[in-house]
Amino acid sequence: MTAGNKENVRLFDAGAKGRGLKASKEFSTGEVVFAEPSYSAVVFDSLAFQVCHCCFRRQAQLHRCGQCRFAHYCNRTCQTACWEEHKQECAAIRKSGKAPSESVRLAARLLWRLHKDNGLASDSQLVSVDQLQEHVDQLSQEQLQQLQTDVRVLQDYWSYGSKQHSVEYISHIFGIIKCNGFTLTDQRGLQAVGVGLFPNLALVNHDCWPNCTAILNHGNHSAVSSALHSPRRIEVRTLGKISEGEELTISYVDFLQLSADRQKQLKEQFHFECSCKHCSQHISDDLMMAAADGQDSPIQEVSAFSKDSLEKIEKSRLDGDYSEVLRLCRECLQKQRGVLADTHLHRLRVLSIAAEVLSSLRQFSEAADCARKMVEGYMKLYHPNNALLGMAIMRAGVTLWHAGQIEEGHSLICKAYSILMVTHGPNHSVTRDLEKMRTQTEQELKMLQQNTEVYPPKKQNISSCSTDGGAKAFLREQ
Predict the structure, then answer these.
(1) GO MF annotations for this entry (predicted)?
(2) Which of 199, 228, 252 is the last residue of a domain?
(3) Per-residue pLDDT for 27 more than 90?
(4) Calpha distance 400→366 (Å, rounded)
(5) Which of 81, 257, 404, 474 is the S-S candidate for 261 at Cβ 3.0 to 4.6 Å?
(6) CA dihedral in degrees (71, 75, 81, 86; nearest 10)?
(7) The domain spanning residue 315 has which CATH number?
(8) Residue 263 placed within a domain
């Protein structure tokens, strides 16, 4: 949290929910309540060589640390900017001969930072890191065994002079990470690439229908001098108007689940019972399991078939057999037609996968049809300013644009832009990319309309037109 916006919030006792944050003033839609650089953050093990360890951007070619040969960076400027955070990790990796798991690396980075700060909260922190909530005493037997393994690995990996920590304290640190770790996405917002700890963000409580969203801003690292860089940071933005004294909330899980499933996930991962309005009143559960209009017979058979098909689809995706994925999706969608509503979770999941696979196979016309139906269902379920909804509409708009359905694609891209301006703001890389697409589709639409006035089509629908090569090249770059 920057010193300039710490005054925007105040810490309070939220009763059964523990501590929480309230707004110290009134906020308009899309305002930044506070921004906070990561206290510690690491790239996932599986993406360690594909994502910059400083700004968390995905890059085709990365510069490798010549000492530990594990950390990768966009360039020398990112490496220099991250050296203070990496230097002790670098020595530990060289000493142990290999990098440990992401959870151990994050715990070690957190401990090194605590040592550097003498365990004290900075002026921008509302509480110190080791005062954050943890639920080690509520872990399952399997989770406890994993915790014990991680503690032993960290003790071997740890190197800070003669200073050693007790098993209890290290377990406490791992517990804090498990309960408060925040997933970080790449610069396009499309893939989870790492995990970080943000102490002030950890104080914001959950609601399945929140009034804020937390988005990673990767900062600006284009300047040659690292002194001119802006750090990666979380921005907490309002999804609507917020009154002074109102509690700030974000959602810890995707809303697109039945209330019982959201409650189960929250209980298993964060160890609390969600009693928000949408869970206690089971709001939208009926839509998520609804039958199609005019469908009177039971839908259990088709629902069971869909669930089984989704398991097969996921297996085929993991195997890389996309032709089989597509066959299963088409079969399932045919079975669902006229039986499951357009808001049914199984139908939406199949439509999402089908649109993704069809686009990758460049079958854009069919992909556009799936994407359109998927978005229609999403808009009936999600909060109108939900970031995931905005990203889904953006992808659908791009798919329709690529399919030559320029007018409808442009409309969806504009809709996505209005949502992401609220959730991400005008300076986020996702929003800037979307602004370029919005401008290009608008220009293409004008050209298409001008050509139509001069040369009226002969019973040709706009969906049969194709985007020009420049548009497709632009999309491939995105």
Answers:
(1) histone H3K4 trimethyltransferase activity; zinc ion binding
(2) 252
(3) yes
(4) 10
(5) 257
(6) 10
(7) 1.25.40.10
(8) no
**Which of the listed ranges 132-136, 260-264, 465-469 does the model predict with the highest average pLDDT?**
260-264
378 vs 393: CA distance, rounded Å: 9
* Alpha helices, H only, 30-118: 76-96, 102-116
**472 — pLDDT class (breaks 50, 70, 90):** very low
- Give yes or no for a contact between 77 and 229, defined as CB atoms under 8 angstroms apart: yes
Which range marks the domain in which residue 172 is found?
6-252
Closest CA to 348 of 362, 338, 336, 360: 336
44-53 long-range contacts, CB within 8 A, separation 24+: 44/102, 44/192, 44/193, 44/194, 44/195, 45/99, 45/101, 45/102, 47/193, 47/194, 48/72, 48/99, 51/186, 51/193, 51/194, 52/78, 53/82, 53/86
Q: What phi and psi, each to the nearest 5 degrees, are found at residue 375?
A: -65, -40
Q: What is the pLDDT of residues 429-462, one digit of tens each?
A: 899 999 999 999 999 988 888 877 666 554 333 3
Rounded to whole angstroms, the maximal C-alpha distance in the chain is 82
Q: Which two tokens stand for residue 170?
A: 């290290």
User: For position 226, what pLDDT does the model report?
Assistant: 54
Domain count across the chain = 3
Strand order across the beta sheet in which 192-197 lies: 40-43, 192-197, 182-185
Residue 474: predicted pLDDT: 38
